[in-house]
């Protein structure tokens, strides 16, 4: 429960799209294996990725719902590690060799770091 509150606090801190606590409960009950957090040395959550799987017709795909690393902890590879862990878990969960990962990108204005990260992750053509 403390982790969910800390994730929500990160989300409210500076993300453009915010969620009520019931949405975090829905994710943790439905896809507990697709939620990852990163903590600092004091055990405080400084980043997280909240993911889920979608099954539509014959296609299974992963969806990153929310993804965040505090400004004070950026440029340390944490975002890459979080996204890699989520992607690996989604690939394992899908039981398929090929799957589509959907990411809805809401960026802070003029956030070149976020755009460059997304390009490196292959989220832009």
Automatic annotation (TrEMBL):
<dbReference type="InterPro" id="IPR045047">
    <property type="entry name" value="Ard1-like"/>
</dbReference>
<dbReference type="InterPro" id="IPR000182">
    <property type="entry name" value="GNAT_dom"/>
</dbReference>
<dbReference type="InterPro" id="IPR016181">
    <property type="entry name" value="Acyl_CoA_acyltransferase"/>
</dbReference>
<comment type="similarity">
    <text>Belongs to the acetyltransferase family. ARD1 subfamily.</text>
</comment>
<keyword id="KW-0808">Transferase</keyword>
<keyword id="KW-0012">Acyltransferase</keyword>
<feature type="domain" description="N-acetyltransferase">
    <location>
        <begin position="1"/>
        <end position="125"/>
    </location>
</feature>
<protein>
    <recommendedName>
        <fullName>N-acetyltransferase domain-containing protein</fullName>
    </recommendedName>
</protein>
<dbReference type="Pfam" id="PF00583">
    <property type="entry name" value="Acetyltransf_1"/>
</dbReference>
């Amino acid at each position: 429960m403390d982790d969910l509150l800390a994730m929500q606090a990160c989300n409210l801190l500076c993300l453009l799209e915010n969620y009520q606590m019931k949405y975090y409960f829905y994710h943790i009950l439905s896809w507990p294996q697709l939620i990852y957090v990163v903590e600092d040395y004091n055990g405080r959550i400084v980043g997280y990725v909240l993911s889920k799987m979608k099954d539509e017709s014959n296609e299974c795909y992963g969806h990153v719902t929310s993804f965040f690393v505090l400004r004070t902890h950026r440029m340390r590879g944490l975002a890459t590690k979080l996204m890699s862990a989520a992607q690996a878990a989604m690939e394992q969960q899908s039981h398929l060799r090929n799957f589509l990962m959907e990411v809805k990108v809401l960026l802070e204005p003029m956030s070149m770091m976020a755009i460059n990260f997304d390009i490196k992750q292959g989220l832009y053509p």
